[in-house]
Design goal:
Low-confidence stretches: 1-18
Largest sheet: 8 strands, antiparallel
Number of helices: 1
Structural class: mainly beta
Strand content: over 45%
Number of strands: 30
Shape: elongated
Number of domains: 3
Helix content: under 10%
Distance between the termini: 37 Å
Mean pLDDT: 80
Radius of gyration: 27 Å
Length: 333
């Protein structure tokens, strides 16, 4: 009888961008610096994502200078971002973006003043000034790549590995690419999943790997925006093993290995068999050799001390039972 085993070695809630999210109040808007203009009460701070809702006008009536922030900001405009007073500017940190969706606008309604009486600046570069005139979406200022990913997991689904992830916010998100690797270094693309463009609500996504590799595989997400810019999530590692009668199930965890790793050999059903366990580097050099006598249904485990015995790199753990072998890759950090 065959048995399929899936072990989630790493299940990490990761973020492409860490930020709070502010929506305009939905009742007409108000001044940027007024707490009542925002939900939750504002004003926005460094690293935040801002949505100006359709029908709302958010006004820049005093200087708003975020240029010293270490985290980018993202402003999505479905309503209007307006400069009604000559003089005030909006300065945003590097890697920020302002997205005018269809129906959104950037205006300077104040009378008089010079062509630079008001301007929008990103990373010390003026990307719009009053003399440029009112701007209407769709239009993008800057190079936004903000997607807040709050969950990325994998689980078995019959003979597939089902990946699921959830975003809290998205700005300018075109699509996700699901990528897989058997060594944690070289990745292949399995397929694309369309993104939600701009969103400030939870969005759930899933993807099935219908032909998973046996042993340990590493999955990651590549998020690409409409301008072709992209970035990666962190990895999750999945071990997918087939266990025939007469073969122990080999598991190595945690993987990647930091400090101490555990090697487990379970469900060895044959009496008076023995298990050879060997560890090789990528050049094929044997690092560890352990021969362990087995009795019926006995499970064993032992540890690799990565801090004392192993240099950082990729290793292969191989177990042989009753003339049958299986192996796993281990990344030691």
């Amino acid at each position: 009888m065959q048995k399929l085993i899936l072990t989630i070695l790493l299940s990490i809630a990761v973020n492409f961008v860490f930020s709070a999210t502010y929506n305009s109040n939905g009742t007409g808007g108000g001044a940027w610096g007024s707490p009542a203009s925002w939900s939750p009460a504002g004003p926005p701070a460094c690293g935040d994502t801002v949505y100006i809702l359709a029908g709302d006008v958010i006004t820049i009536e005093v200087q708003q200078d975020y240029s010293g922030c270490g985290s980018p900001m993202f402003i999505v405009v479905d309503g209007t971002l307006d400069f009604p007073v000559n003089g005030p500017k909006l300065r945003l940190p590097c890697n920020s973006g302002v997205i005018l969706n269809a129906g959104g606008s950037l205006t300077a309604s104040g009378s008089g003043g010079g062509g630079s009486a008001n301007f929008l600046e990103i990373c010390s570069t003026v990307v719009w000034k009053k003399s440029d005139g009112d701007q209407f979406g769709p239009m993008i200022f800057g190079s936004p790549l903000p997607v807040k990913l709050i969950l990325f997991t994998a689980e078995i689904d019959n003979t597939s590995v089902k990946l699921m992830w959830v975003t809290e916010t998205e700005v300018n998100n075109d699509f996700f690419t699901v990528e897989r690797s058997t060594n944690g270094i070289d990745f292949e693309a399995l397929g694309n999943v369309p993104g939600s463009g701009n969103s400030n609500t939870l969005k759930e996504y899933d993807f099935n790997d219908d032909a998973p590799e046996f042993g340990t595989s590493y999955y990651r997400l590549k998020q690409t925006d409409f301008d072709g810019k992209y970035e990666y999530s962190e990895l999750i590692a999945v071990q997918y093993d087939m266990n025939d009668d007469g073969i122990c199930t080999l598991k190595v965890y945690p993987n990647p290995c930091v400090g101490t790793c555990t090697i487990d050999l379970k469900d060895c059903p044959l009496a008076d068999s023995q298990v050879d366990v060997e560890l090789y580097d990528t050049m094929g050099k044997k690092i560890v050799n352990r021969i362990t006598p087995k009795s019926k249904d006995q499970d064993i485990s032992f540890h690799l001390n990565a801090n004392n015995n192993l240099s950082p790199g990729i290793y292969i753990v191989k177990s042989t039972t009753n003339g049958k072998s299986q192996s796993n890759k281990v990344i030691v950090k």
